[in-house]
Every structure is written in C-alpha cells, then in structure tokens.
Amino acid sequence: MSIASLAETRRPSRLLPQDHVALVLALVALPAAFFGGFLSVAPNRLADGQSLTLWHIGFAATAIIFAFLTLVFVAAFIRDKTRHASLLFASGAGLLICLLLIAGIAADGRLDPQEPARRISLASTFWILFSIGVLACFRGLQRATSLWKVALPLGLTAAAVTIIGSGKLNSLSLVHEFYAQRATFKIELIRHVGLVAVAVLLAALCAAPLVLAVAYRPKARVTIFTILNLLQTIPSIALFGLLIAPLSFIAAHVPLAREIGIGGIGAAPALIALVLYGLLPLVRSADAGLRNVPAAVRDSARGMGMTPKEIFRKVDLPLALPALISGLRVVTVQSIGLAIVAALIGAGGLGTFVFQGIGEYALDLVLVGALPTILLALAADALFQIVLANLRSRP
Amino acid sequence: MIDFDAVEKSCAGKRVVGPLSLSIPQGALCVLVGPSGCGKSTTLKMINALIVPDAGSISINGKPVLSHPAEELRRGIGYVIQSGGLFPHWRVRDNIATVPRLLRWDEARVAARVNEVAEIAAIDRALLDRFPHQLSGGQQQRIGVARALAADPNVILMDEPFGALDPVTRAALQQELARLHRDTGKTIVLVTHDMDEALALGAMIVVMQSGAVAQSGTPADILAHPASAFVRDFVGGADAMMKLLEFRQVGHFVRSGGGPSGDPIHATASLRSALTKMVSKGQTILAVEGESGTIVGAIHIDDIVAAGKR
C-alpha cells in the first residue's frame, strides 16, 4: 500500500456523523412527527379527545416541521464546531417557535362557537417534538460561553412569552387553563420560589456545622451519615405525614409557635421536610470536596505556618468550593421538584395546580403547575452552572 | 545551629525515633538519609514542630522549638515537600508569597520579594502568572523552593524534595540546590532515601537506622570508614569504592617526575575522572597540571587502586 493511499484511508469520510446526540434526536423525531397525535380535540374538559396528527393539520405545517428536523439531522454531520453548534441551536429554537405557532393556529381553526366546552389540547407528538427542540438547543449551547448560555435561552423564553401574550395560543386549553388561574398563578409561583429559597438557605445553614463535624471529627462521621442516609430513604409524602403530629402538638402547646405560623400543615412541615432532604446532598458533596484536598497541599500549608483556621479559609474552603456549589445546585433543583408535593399539606406553591388538576382530571391544569416547575429547575441549574464556570479564588 | 538532645518519638506504641542526639551546624547542608521507615522524615518534622517529640528537646540557636507558638516557628522556617505541595488554586506568584502574606507584609514588599526570590531560584518571570498545574514537575519543585525562601528564613527543611522527578531534572535541581546553598548560606536539612543524592548534595550526611544515627560525617568519611555493616551495605557495598574516588582529588596523589606528554589531568579533578581518562586512553600514568597549567607531576594507577582501599 502506498503512502498516498494510506493517507487516503486515514482521512475520515465527510459523511460520518460528528454528533451522535443530534443524530439520535433527529432520527427519533422523524417517525414521531408523522405518527401519533399532535393535538387532541375533546368535546369537553372530562371527555377523551380525538387525536389529530400533524398531517391532518396540514401540508404546510408538516413541511415546516420536517424542514427543521432535517436541519437537526444535517447539523449532526457538520465538522466545524461553531457552525455545528449554531445550526443545532437555530434549528432547535426554530422548531420550538414553529411548534407553538402551528399548535396555536391549528387550534384556532378548530374551535367551534356552537360548542363552547370544546377543548383542544397538546398531544404526545407535540411534546416529543418540543422536548427534541429543547434538547437540540441545549446541545447547541453546550460549548457556548456563559454570556450566550444566558442570552439565548432568555431570548427564546421572551419569544415564547411574546407569542403567548399575543393571544395566538389562546385557543389551546393549556393557555385557557393558565388564564383561568392567572390570579392565583403569580401568588403560587412566588410562594414556590420563596419556599425553595428559604429551604435551601436553611439547609445550607444546618449543613455547615454538620460538614465541619463530618470532615474534621472522624468519630461523628459515621453517625451523621447514617442519620442523613436514613432521612433520605423516607418517602416525601410519608415525611410530611410524620411531621404533622409533632408540629400539631407544638402548635397546640406553644402559643408563640402558633403565632409565627407553625402547625401540622402549611409551610412549616414543608420547609422542615425540604431542609431534611437537602442535608444529605449538601453534606455529602461538601465532604467529598474537603476530602479531595490533596494531603500534600494541607501538609505544606501547615508546614508553612498556617493556623488551622487559615488552612480552612485559604486552602480547604476554596478548593472545596466547586463541590459545595455543586451540592447547592443539586439541592436547589431537587427542592424545586419536591416543593410540588408540599402543596399536599397546604404549603401552596405550583403543586397546587398539579394536585387540583389531578383531582379534576384536567391534564392541562397539571401542566400549568408542572411546566413552570421544569422551567424553574432548568433556570436554577443553568444559573449554578454559570457560577461554577466563573469561580475564581483569590489568595 | 540545630540541636537534638535525647529526642524520642513513638507512634502507636512503636518507637520511630530515638534516642537521638544530633547537632547540625549553622549554614550546613545536612542530608538525613536511610531506608524508608528509619525515622528520617519524623526527625525532620520535629524541627518545625509538625511532630512533637515524646521526650528530649530540639533547639535552634539555643532556643527550644516548642517555646514558640508552632505557627510562628514554622513561618520562620522554610519547608519544601515532595512534588512541591503547591496550592493548586493560586498562581505561582501567590504561592511564593504565602509566608510573607501570613507575616502580613505590605503588598509592595511582597511583590518585590517575589521577584527577588524568583531571580534567586532561577524562575522565568513568565511562569509567575501561571497556575501550578500548567508547570512541569521540575518547575513546580523550583517554585516550592522559592516559596520556602520567600520570607528569608535561616533554616530550610526539605522532605524528599526531588523524589518524584526524572533523573535528568533531579540532577539539575540538585546542582541548583548546591549553588543556592553556597550563595545564601542557609542551614538546609534535607531528607532522602537515595544515597547517591545524599553524596551528590551533602556536606554533612547523617545515615539513620531505626530511628537512631548510624553514622554522621562527610561523604568521604562515610564511604571510606563505614561505622557498621549496615552503613557499608547502605552506601553501596563494593560500589562505594568507586563513589569514594569521586571525593578524592588527584592533587593529593601526585608523584614527582613527568608522565606521558600531552593532555594532562588537572590537580583538582577527582580520582574517578583520572581513572576514566586512563581507561579511555589506555594509559596507566597521566601527567598532572597545576593551578597555572604547568605540569606538577604524574598520577599512577597503583595509587588510585590504593586510595580506593579502605
């Protein structure tokens, strides 16, 4: 074999997929786009709907979706990293916007003034394609700088909000439900965020002494981890239940506690449960961070005359900081999800809509609670990622 | 001057060091050498109170080390460990500035001192703004030494400083350390398990065996007159003779009268290099030149063989 032909075989073919994730997204999306319901039309809120495929909705809609999915597919083969990322994000974002517009316009055309109770809701194909759009956007942003990671999703969210605000989606039952709940939505959203923020803050405050004990007192280590592990295994609903009795007792016998709002139901048990669940991930990640500080580094810190406090402040803490923030990230995202369940014991929050929706057999109302929760979790996750990427320590 | 007076240290019921009495003179480059587990590292760490002896006392210039608060003592003593032990989250500049900052020097003085020390330790200015992980092992070790020098301590302790380096880098840093010692006149106590490193560096070698001094002296002393079978084995058995030739100068073995003309050997060269030259030239006698380049006599192979005998 000559050198030239060797070089020939060595050069990878231009037609090899470069990004297997994008390839899988496109290949999963294509069949999903053409089989399965895109919208579901039901005579009223309770009845089962009749599903409409994308093809039923129209040729133009099908062609547009097909075009964006093809772009995702093409992006999978692009070697140039910047072009690959831009095309992937652009096609993902385009897919999302068009999905919303197509759903809105198609629903508009299918409302019947004779049938005011008719419900048009988003069905499985819409959600699959929507997830694929979101995943394509994420994949495209993966290597982007922090600025783009903030700006592009914010822009996309603003576009989506504008579309919803313009009334183009008003015929969809999801938007319908949202407007019906509008007054309480803001209150519950704030309550949800507040619950999570206070819980994470309290969890961090409670975790701090535990971390110190676990990391610097070997004897306390096993005990603390055993208790925290045990707490983590209690199902959340059971934990809420377990808290009702002691908190009711306290409320009944300590007037001050009752005055500041402690009771068997409401925010107090929810906060306590969220804090308890947050402890293990926080303590474990902080402990891992502190244990990963190389022994040689600590040895030289001591040998150069740092006091134990200085070693903690100047060496241990900064070196463990990424692990600490990762712990906070896990706990925040986890709490945003867990706080849904808190609605069961009267703590309010976005879970209110979820459980109300389940009770009324109204899937769209469940989504009014669930979708913002997912968005919140994603936003919190992105925020912590950005903080982690920009960590700098000063001597 | 560092004095160990009947120092003992046990760990988990087993005696690691002691009873140990030892005097390290001011300005010495003293190498503690011995097999692993002989207590050399423990001995070193007792000097800056990282380890506290069970009995006996250690003093620096007559002042017991335990009479200072431990941190204050350590800030006055340089400390270098294997692989440097640099702080991975600080730039090289900040690593070097560690002790001056602990001593609360003002920033202008710290910055000036960092540059000064970088010069002494032959560190490229460009490296000062890098992070440790961006440097090679040899560079990191050099930074470790610069960091130990930063607050200008009189005593520097080094625990296996060159242990993790490749042989070429290690040899270069050993030479560098010898130069640094000559230039600064600091008292340096260095721990190694490598006898060749000890011979290459040490003006004063302390061979340790199970927590006690097996022998201390100059390299030539220890090679020529090992105090025990242990020391003889440790310094390299039969090979020790060749090492010994390294420490003896041609000048001391010159016979009067000329040798073969051309390509003489210098009087300050070692017997080992004379032997090498003989073998490579196929001669048993070499002419010896003195200070001014004039021939002062000749060196005979019989004398080299005799010098190698103990």
Can you tell me the residue ranges of chain B where pLDDT is under 50 for at least 5 consecutive residues? none
- Average pLDDT over all residues of chain B: 87
What is the element string of chain B, with H for helices and E for strands? EEEHEEHEHHHHEHEHEEHHHEHEEH
**Overall SS class of chain A:** mainly alpha
Low-confidence spans of chain A: pLDDT under 50, at least 5 residues?
A: none
* Distance linking N and C termini of chain A: 59 Å
Radius of gyration of chain A: 26 Å
Q: How many β-strand runs of chain A?
A: 3
Report the strand count of chain B. 13
- Fraction of residues of chain A in helices? over 70%
Annotation field: number of helices of chain A: 17
Task: State the end-to-end CA separation of chain B.
Answer: 32 Å
Helix content of chain B: 25-40%
Query: What's the alpha carbon Rg of chain B, rounded to whole Å?
Result: 22 Å
Query: Which chains have the largest interface?
Result: A-B, 19 and 30 residues
Please tell me about this protein's structure.
- Chain A has 395 residues and is mostly helical.
- Chain A is 75% helix and 3% strand.
- Chain A is built from 17 helices and three strands.
- A three-stranded antiparallel β-sheet of chain A has the order 2-1-3.
- In chain A, a hairpin with a 7-residue loop joins strand 1 and strand 2.
- Chain A is flat.
- Chain A starts with a helix and ends in a 6-residue tail after the last helix.
- The model of chain A has no long low-confidence stretch (mean pLDDT 86).
- Chain B has 13 helices and 13 strands.
- Chain B has helices spanning 40-47, 70-75, 92-96, 98-102, 107-120, 137-149, 167-184, 195-201, 219-224, 229-234, 239-246, 271-281, 301-308; strands spanning 2-11, 14-24, 29-33, 55-60, 63-64, 77-81, 155-159, 187-192, 204-209, 212-217, 265-266, 285-289, 295-300.
- A six-stranded mixed β-sheet of chain B has the order 6-7-8-3-9-10, sandwiched between helices. Chain B has a four-stranded antiparallel β-sheet with strand order 2-1-4-5, with helices on one face.
- With 310 residues, chain B is α/β, with parallel strands linked by helices.
- Chain B is 37% helix and 24% strand.
- The A-B interface holds A 294, 296-297, 299-307, 310, 314-315, 318-319, 393, 395 and B 45, 48, 50, 70-76, 79, 81-90, 94, 97-99, 101-102, 144, 147, 157.
